[in-house]
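Fold it.
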Amino acid sequence: MVQSRAGRGAALARLALRIGGRYVARSPRLVFASVERRRELRHDLALRSADDVAEELGAMRGVLMKLGQMASYIYEDLPETVRTTMGRLQQTAPPMSAEMAAGVITEELSAPPEEVFAKWDPLAFAAASIGQVHRAITRDGRAVAVKVQYPGIARSITSDLRNVSLLRRIVGSAFPGLDTRALVEELAERLEEEIDYGLEGRSQELFASYYEGHPYIHVPHVVPELSTARVLTSELVSGSRFEEMQAWSQHERDLAAETIYRFVFRSLYRIHAFNGDPHPGNYVFHGGGRVSFLDFGLTKTFSDHDLAPLVDAVRLLVFDNDADGFRDALERAGFLKAGAPVATQRVVDRFGHFYGTVLKDRPMTITPEYSSAIVRRFFDARSPLAPYSDVPRAYVVMQRINLGLYAVLGSMNATANWRRIAEEIWPFKNGPPSTPIGEAEARWEAGRAIAV
């Protein structure tokens, strides 16, 4: 099922040669073709390359597939055909056989699934980079989702991480102009955490317990007695997936977007934790702004020390208009080298762009073009600040979430007064509710305080 290290390396090499050779073979035609014909040839070339990459990544899973998933929803400037092809990887990884999934259950829970559960669906209803999900009914009558890890995925991930340099070349060839260095290195640092379903279960329970009873945010609870390092059993969530939600009215999409935004930043500032995989396949929508959040395999927690310079940066830029203080906060966080020979106003122009949704106290629509511009700014190696900028290790996951959040909200064309919503959550403001969702959230929070 999972290829050996040598086999996966050979597959990567074949893929790189196919894509690279295709560009070489087509280059004379591109030189002498008309402008329109060059566009057609490049479009065809990108689509064929994307098909190759999707096929290889989908079959190989692990690091490779995860990168494909991220590229498909983060980078808006990819041709639509390429985005569509790569988008297959968000939820449609090739499943393992029913027999193989049953074997994992038997090994982990000491009995075949038909004995462990009152009812077991041998056909997976969702598949991703590390495992696939089956429906089941527990012996006490609860409907659950059972995530079963692919056999050998840990070895596969190790092999993929040793192929990082080759992976960069492959994705760079398939998507000219996309700087994948930060994405690949972040995966190499973090993906190994995702194979421990025990860790994921504890992270999921952290969120589920905190958001218990929330009127709009729902995180399914874990069933610990039916969970191990390779099997994770949680409450089954039914609802609409991202693609279905996109067909809803703009008002409904705006409500869902507000809830996603609140979940991300409330989790950061109130429980100091981030769900590190914000792609569309991890949301289930119920209408009226209610959203369930899935997949906590990559959860990053932060200390007060980690968050302090970030909180200062927001306050100094947005409220105090203190350019020097904003720069100092970025230097303390490690995003900018201290004493870099660049003007402070240039620093504000470069980094202030990432605070664009909260600089003005007014409604703003986050468009695909806006979110794409954020990504381009993040990966802009030509910026005069590039030699002096860095993403500190403590914030790598946070940057991935920020980019992913903007991409998701941009694809929804979400409109809100993001500044007012943020003021409710920022610890130095604790502003009054600004929307009906905010009012309901404030009542929930007041109830939690009384209960505690």
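The first helix runs from residue 5 to 32.
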